[in-house]
Write a sequence for this structure.
């Protein structure tokens, strides 16, 4: 089934929120995960994870399927997990740049 | 620590932090060896990154002294989007940076980047019409 049409903004909003990025990274690592499984690895409640999953689904970045009593989530487009691991590597570069910025301003 | 975002508390006011992230001379002190930028939506930027060469791009959003969003790319690399946010805190200013590559994701989802970020009250942003071609042109 074709994904529902969504705008650019929900995708950027999803990628801009640190908890949602963590949710995406975790799903990417595991392939598939339920809200309860994700909540065990995050400092937020299952209800909060559920809300983040709903906005990720609305942005078309995750899809779900029912497995018995559980709902399992997975990343939708293939580039998604590449994009998440790329973000982690450039994050390390920004840590260094921000340290340099701090040194610059502390002079 | 949050996944994939970087942050630091700087011992300065938001205005001073804003200067440090937007003034070409100051950018040349910490982000690269030299920087040029035209600080307005759609304005060009060029930053000489030490040991890596030049990155070129343009500015998407400017909201002094809180938020700066730009796109940049080095030769042959896919363009990426950098969001910098400044928040006053006791003791200084918190800076958060997220760099992402939304284009591949948007393409995979069949989302037209030309339907760019309608601003407040649905106003199309200044950079809207040519945004996609500019993003694609960044990768050369």
């Amino acid at each position: 089934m074709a994904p529902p049409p969504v705008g650019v903004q929900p995708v950027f909003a999803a990628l801009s929120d640190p908890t949602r990025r963590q949710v995406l990274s975790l799903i990417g690592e595991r392939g598939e995960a339920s809200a309860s499984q994700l909540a065990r690895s995050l400092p937020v409640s299952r209800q909060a994870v559920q809300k983040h999953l709903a906005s990720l689904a609305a942005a078309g970045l995750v899809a779900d399927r029912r497995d018995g009593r559980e709902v399992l989530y997975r990343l939708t487009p293939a580039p998604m997990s590449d994009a998440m691991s790329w973000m982690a590597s450039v994050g390390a570069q920004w840590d260094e740049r921000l340290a340099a910025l701090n040194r610059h301003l502390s002079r | 620590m949050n996944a994939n975002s970087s942050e630091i508390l700087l011992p300065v006011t938001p205005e001073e932090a804003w200067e440090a992230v937007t003034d070409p001379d100051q950018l040349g002190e910490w982000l690269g060896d030299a920087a040029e930028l035209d600080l307005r939506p759609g304005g060009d930027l060029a930053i000489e990154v030490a040991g890596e060469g030049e990155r070129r791009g343009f500015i998407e959003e400017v909201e002094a002294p809180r938020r700066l969003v730009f796109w940049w790319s080095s030769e042959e690399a896919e363009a990426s989007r950098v969001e910098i946010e400044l928040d006053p805190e006791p003791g200084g200013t918190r800076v958060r940076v997220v760099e992402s590559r939304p284009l591949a994701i948007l393409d995979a989802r069949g989302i037209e980047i030309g339907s760019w970020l309608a601003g407040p009250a649905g106003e199309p942003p200044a950079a809207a019409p040519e945004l996609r071609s500019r993003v694609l042109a960044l990768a050369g």
Remarks:
- The domain at 8-106 of chain A is CATH 1.10.10.10 (Arc Repressor Mutant, subunit A).
- The first helix of chain A runs from residue 8 to 16.
